[in-house]
Design a protein that fits this description.
Strand content of chain A: under 5%
Structural class of chain B: mainly alpha
Number of domains of chain B: 1
CATH topology of chain B: MetI-like fold
Oligomer: heterodimer
Order of helices and strands of chain A: HHHHHHHHHHHHHHHHHHH
CATH superfamily of chain B: MetI-like
Largest sheet of chain A: none
CATH class of the largest domain in chain A: Mainly Alpha
CATH class of chain B: Mainly Alpha
CATH architecture of the largest domain in chain A: Orthogonal Bundle
Number of helices of chain B: 12
Distance between the termini of chain A: 43 Å
CATH superfamily of the largest domain in chain A: MetI-like
Helix content of chain A: over 70%
Number of strands of chain B: 0
Helix content of chain B: over 70%
Largest interface: A-B, 91 and 100 residues
Distance between the termini of chain B: 47 Å
CATH topology of the largest domain in chain A: MetI-like fold
Strand content of chain B: under 5%
Number of domains of chain A: 2
Radius of gyration of chain B: 22 Å
CATH architecture of chain B: Orthogonal Bundle
Chain lengths: 401, 264
């Protein structure tokens, strides 16, 4: 960085002025949305917003005492209001996670109340569902009215669905997290294995070949992401180019089912992410002094030996950077698995958008989004540490042998 | 070492084939004269290209995409260029942390940002509006401009700023009459990147756009999931060619910047 302009305080002030619009934009349109996702994940006001009067009436009550009558009439008021405002279904689903069957009880009661505005409240409640007679039901509403909760996180790891009405079973989310991690680690490994030789070739290519090689390696990087995913849908379909080529070469006996399969997801994601590994890896390789390997050779090491103990350990910083980048990008992948994978190959990103846009459970979507980011950070640190452990191992072998 | 190099050359040839063959293979299918997507091509024709050119849905989507990409890229270029200039003026340590903050929009997964923007724009009443879409695209794209212009600034001798100051220029003048003319290849490159980024964006758009705001990637995505016909291939190929063409232009701009003498 060129520090010529910086010692003047007037310039510092100007810096603030130049940065101001971008900082405001990021705080408002990236940091604030992120905070909203985080708060939705663990802070859910759906029940509190739908049952304000009921919660007020229950505030002094505890489960040892009979349910006060004013709570019943407050519930009727809340049900009517929320039913009309169409905010009841979401809150009812939330309550159903705690007490199975409460969703249909709430909706049925609200319908009865809406149909007959003069009805006797106690009788209507009794008629609509036996659940209203149980004190536990009222305790559930009271507990769910507290907005801060980890219940969504609990649902992610819950082993079994809590009934027909529970929506996607808890176990589904846990599986999806595991699958997202597996696919991302797998794709990272594949890009390292395929990308390392390519970065090597870019580093040691003869001068005339270097520029065209560079251009060819990085053209895909700036090509449309969706276009590349789309290309794989077209190529992988049954009877498509890959299928035909495999059969013509005798690699497959029957038609290959690659589209909507896990193999297809690995192939397409590796293809899309490969340049993201090659670049950082190449940068690390280009910085290694050439004469080190020559020195090792002249001291009698074989070609492969000087490659493994002199060259490779020094490139591992670049490998770590590239692998971490690929992993982080892979964790957030949405388009490629959505297009190339089948229902059993979808990743967390897909679930976040599905349950937001189709089911409308934004609280659960937020929990999954928070989980995705947490898993991304943990995974990236794991990769980083693994690569450095590998480097220590290689260097240790170099010294002891 | 010759053995190592030979093995590596072989492996890298394989990698390069894997990288390029799919893209090369798909290009001619757009010119197929057949009903189905298959090789060998029954013949060459422009029928699928003609069909998408005449299709009202695609044309509307193209109009939306170009409008959103152009406006958001203008906004992103302004934000990104200002931010890059601001970062070289800031104290180095503060610049580092500010840079990480400003990279936030590209660091978080699109789905998470999309979800958050969905909450925010719903609260602000900007869901399903062009304003919301353009602002969102500008925020996702401006870090790219910032990086490109920042790289160009790093190789520029900033003494010109002090020279201009000593001659009595204010910051407005320094920015418009000194820095912008010096940096314009990079600013143009940033604009192109921002345009491409917006033109290719589908995930955040999906969360915050209304049904009447179809963009090309959104229609393509929906079509890829429902039915595959050669017109989908034709659009895919056009998107790949557009991005590759503009990408090559970026390379030319970069080389032009390198060859330019240091003085403005």
């Amino acid at each position: 960085m060129n520090g010529n302009g910086s010692p003047f305080s007037a310039n510092r002030l100007a810096a603030a002025g130049f940065l101001f619009p971008a900082i405001v934009a990021v705080l408002l349109m990236a940091a604030l949305p992120l905070a909203m996702v985080a708060s939705k994940a663990f802070y859910d006001t759906q029940v509190r917003d739908a049952f304000p009067a009921t919660l007020e009436a229950l505030s002094g009550w505890d489960q040892g005492a009979p349910v006060p009558d004013k709570a019943r009439s407050a519930l009727a008021d809340d049900l009517r209001t929320a039913y009309e405002a169409q905010t009841l279904a979401g809150a009812a689903s939330k309550l159903n996670e705690r007490t199975n069957g409460l969703r249909s009880a709430i909706m049925a009661t609200a319908r009865h109340l809406a149909r007959d505005s003069e009805a006797d409240i106690a009788a209507t409640l009794e008629r609509s569902s036996p659940l209203w007679a149980a004190r536990e039901t009222w305790a559930t509403i009271k507990a769910a009215g507290r907005p801060f909760s980890l219940s969504n996180l609990g649902r992610v790891f819950a082993p079994s669905p809590s009934g027909r009405e529970a929506g996607p079973a808890g176990g589904v989310y846990g599986d999806m997290l595991a699958r997202t991690l597996t696919i991302s680690f797998g794709v990272t490994l594949l890009t390292v294995l395929i990308g390392y030789p390519l970065a090597y070739a870019l580093t040691f290519a003869p001068p005339g070949l270097k520029r065209p090689l560079f251009l060819l390696s990085f053209i895909p990087l700036w090509m449309s992401l969706l276009g590349r995913a789309a290309a794989w849908v077209i190529l992988l379909q049954k009877g498509g180019v890959v299928d035909m080529a495999a059969q013509a070469l005798g690699l497959a006996s029957g038609p290959l089912e690659l589209l909507y399969s896990r193999a297809g997801v690995y192939i397409a994601m590796t293809h899309v992410l490969l340049p993201c590994f090659v670049y950082p890896c190449y940068s690390a390789m280009a910085n290694i002094p050439r004469n080190q390997v020559t020195a090792a050779l002249s001291l009698g090491a074989s070609g492969w030996r000087s490659f493994w103990i002199v060259f490779v350990p020094q490139t591992l910083g670049g490998v770590a950077a590239g692998a971490t980048l690929v992993f982080v990008l892979a964790m957030g992948f949405y388009l490629t698995p959505a297009l190339v994978g089948g229902p059993a190959d979808q990743m967390l990103s897909y679930m976040v958008s599905e349950i937001t846009l189709r089911i409308g459970d934004t609280a659960m979507a937020s929990t999954l989004a928070a989980l995705l980011i947490a898993a991304m950070i943990v995974g990236a640190l794991t990769i980083h540490m693994t690569v450095y452990a590998l480097r220590r191992l290689l260097l240790l072998r170099a010294w002891t042998s | 070492m010759r053995q190592v190099n030979a093995v590596m050359a072989l492996l890298s040839a394989g990698a390069l084939f894997f990288l390029l063959a799919p893209i090369v293979t798909i290009l001619p299918i757009a010119l197929s004269s057949g009903e189905y997507i298959s090789y060998p091509l029954p013949g060459l024709s422009l029928r699928w290209l003609k069909q998408i050119a005449l299709n009202a849905g695609w044309r509307e989507a193209l109009g939306n995409s170009i409008f959103i990409a152009l406006t958001s890229a203008c906004l992103a270029t302004l934000l990104g260029t200002l931010a890059a200039v601001g970062l070289v003026q800031a104290a180095p340590r503060r610049a580092r942390s500010l840079r990480s903050l400003l990279m936030l929009p590209v660091a978080i997964p699109s789905v998470v940002l999309g979800l958050g923007l969905y909450f925010l724009l719903a609260r602000a009443g900007l869901l399903s509006t062009y304003t919301g879409l353009i602002l969102a695209h500008a925020v996702i794209s401006f870090p790219l401009v910032m990086v490109v212009v920042g790289a160009s600034l790093a190789t520029t001798d900033l003494v010109v700023i002090r020279a201009a100051q000593s001659l009595g220029a204010g910051w407005r003048m320094i920015f418009l009459d000194v820095l912008v003319p010096m940096l314009y290849p990079a600013i143009l490159a940033g604009f192109i990147l921002a345009f491409l980024n917006s033109f290719d964006e589908v995930i955040v758009t999906m969360f915050i756009a209304g049904p009447e705001q179809n963009t090309v990637p959104r229609v393509l995505f929906a079509n890829l999931r429902d039915r595959l016909d050669p017109s989908v291939v034709a659009v895919t190929v056009l998107m790949l060619l557009l991005s590759a063409g503009l990408g090559l232009l970026l390379q030319l701009l970069a080389r032009w910047t390198q060859r330019r003498p240091a003085e403005p």
